[in-house]
Amino acid sequence: MExxxxxxxxxxxxxxxxxxxxxxxxxxxxxQGGYNPNGIDFLEQDxxxxxxxxxxxxxxFEELNDIPGDLRRVESRxxxxxxxxxxxxxxxxxxxxxxxxxxxxLYRHRDALDVEFHAVVDLxxxxxxxxxxxxxxxxxxxAEAKRVADDYPDKRLVVHYMQPHYPFIEAxxxxxxxxxxxxxxxxxxxxxxxxxxxIDIDEETLWNAYADNLRRALPHVKELTEYLxxxxxxxxxxxxxxxxxxxxxxxxxxxxxxxxWTDELVEVPWLELTNGDRRAVVSEPxxxxxxxxxxxxxxxxxxxxxx
Length: 307
Known about the structure:
Residues 277-307 are annotated as: Disordered. This is AlkP-core domain protein. The protein is α/β, with parallel strands linked by helices. The protein has one domain (5-287, 295-303): Alkaline Phosphatase, subunit A. The chain contains 11 helices and 9 strands. The longest helix is centred in the C-terminal third of the chain and has 25 residues, at 203-227.
């Protein structure tokens, strides 16, 4: 197993980070596949459109959702986006599928993930990125997804929204804004700062900001479900923790660290609905992907708290 020396140093500097690292190592050694082995394969399920809310817990979705359909909970293969991608995308040729994403993790891990889509539309690039909020707004995702659906009427569609993952769009919080990698103490990401006490913020404020981010996104997700034809599923790649106990070492955990497969992190919504006729899907050679310079990619990763 490859050891990240920087992460090891951080773990040794704080008891909670060390406990997290030990739990992650234990779980990963048991899984052998690099992801939660009890999760379902999302790509093998029956759908025409898969709409992914990033870091959306089942309980919050159940409380706030007003999109009609059949809702149940399923278990994800990841407690963080890279694990989700590894568990669902790696080793697959998905030439009948277009992936519209606000999340740069597929690009960041492109050398490690063996996956081929018909097309990938990176909304975190270019004009669809919102400089003020340093994310991709949900209304932009919906508008772009409609365009892509029209452009690719014979393809399965995966649409990956960034919300309720921070930045918290409507909140007056500051810890989740800006280039996090530039000013975080000792290289800690945002949720790691909460875990170690570097950020002084109460749980209620965090939860409300997170819930408001989902409220901000859901009307636009609903709009897209009403536009798309065929069978649509609304789900999430993983959940988020707000001080609940981790496993096997029961520290109070925050955020969505990989390798921590608690219910709060791997139980996600699975809402099914059908609008009109099912889509006739065909596989075709991939479209060319656009390119982006490494500095711009790094900026997006920092704004979303991934580095």
